[in-house]
Amino acid sequence: MDIAKQRAVLADSKVIHARSLEKSHKRLALLLKPGMTVLDLGCGTGAITAGIAEKVGPQGRVIGIDHNPNFINQAKLLCQHMPWVTFEVGDIYQIPYEGKFDIVTAARVLQWLSNPHAALEQMIRAAKIDGYVIALDYNHPKISWVPEPPNSMQRFYQTFLSWRDEAGMDNEIADHLAEMMKHSGLDNIVVTSQNEKTERKDEDFQTHISVWASVVASRGLQMVKDGFLTEQERTQVGEEYEKWIQEKAETQIMYLKAVEGRKTH
Ligand SMILES: C[S@@+](CC[C@H](N)C(=O)[O-])C[C@H]1O[C@@H](n2cnc3c(N)ncnc32)[C@H](O)[C@@H]1O
User: Fold this and answer.
1) Ligand 1, atom 27, residue with closest C-alpha
2) Residue pLDDT, tens place only, 16-31
3) CB neighbourhood size of 110 (10 A)
4) Number of compact structural domains in the chain
5) What residues make up the domain containing 244?
6) For the whole model, what pTM was predicted?
C-alpha cells in the first residue's frame, strides 16, 4: 500500500459526520436537480451524500463510494429510507463506472491522494458527456487563525503539512485543481471560493474550531506512529489548543475551493 493510502485512513468520523450538503458542499447543492445521477467519491459516512439524495429525489440515482468499510456501513444506515442511494466499498483509483453520471464529485478527497491526477481521470471516465466533475479541496498553508494559536499548535500544523507532503499529498491542491481539470480535457471550468469561516459569535463555533483538536486526537496518533512527533508533544498541543479555544480563539478561516468542469467530448 502506498504511504498516502495508509495516511488517508481516517479513524474518527466525528468531523465528517457533522457535515451536510447545504453547509459543506455549497456549490454542488446549486448544481443538483431532481432526477440527476450522481457519484459521490470518498463519501465517508454519507452525511453529504444524504443531502445529495434528498435533492435528486426518487427519480434520481446516487452512488457513494469510500474505501473505509465502517464508514460505508454507517452511510447505509443513514440513508436506508432512500432506496435510490446505494453505497459501495471501493477505491477512487478504480471506479467501476463509465459514462454513467450527470455529476461526479469528490469532496475533501483528492487532497488525501498521492496521485490526484489518476483519480481525476477516473472521475472524468465515470461522467456522462455533458456531465460535471466537481472537486472540493483545501489549500492548507492558507489557513488563518485570529489570534494566533499557541506555538505548540503552530508547530503541530507545520508537522502535519510535512507528514502529508512526505506521503506525496498536495497541501495546496485547491489552487491546482483548475489547471489539472483543464489539462485532463474538461471544459467550462468554474472555480468557486468556499472558504470555511467560523467566529466566536457563531452558534456552531465550538464544532468548527474543534476540527484541529480532532486532527490532533486522530491524525496526531498516526503522526506519532510515523515518528513525526512524540506522544508528549501531541498531548501538550491537545491541551494548549483546547485552552486557547476556551479563552482566546476568535476566528478561523480554512481556505476551500470548489472547482468544476464539463465533459464535452
Ligand atoms: C476528509 S474525508 C471527506 C468525507 C466527505 N466527502 C466530506 O467532505 O466530509 C475523506 C474521505 O475519503 C476517503 N478516501 C480516502 N482515500 C480514498 C480512496 N483512495 N478511495 C476511496 N475513498 C478514499 C476516506 O475514507 C474519507 O472518508
Assistant:
1) 44
2) 898 999 999 999 999 9
3) 27
4) 1
5) 3-262
6) 0.96
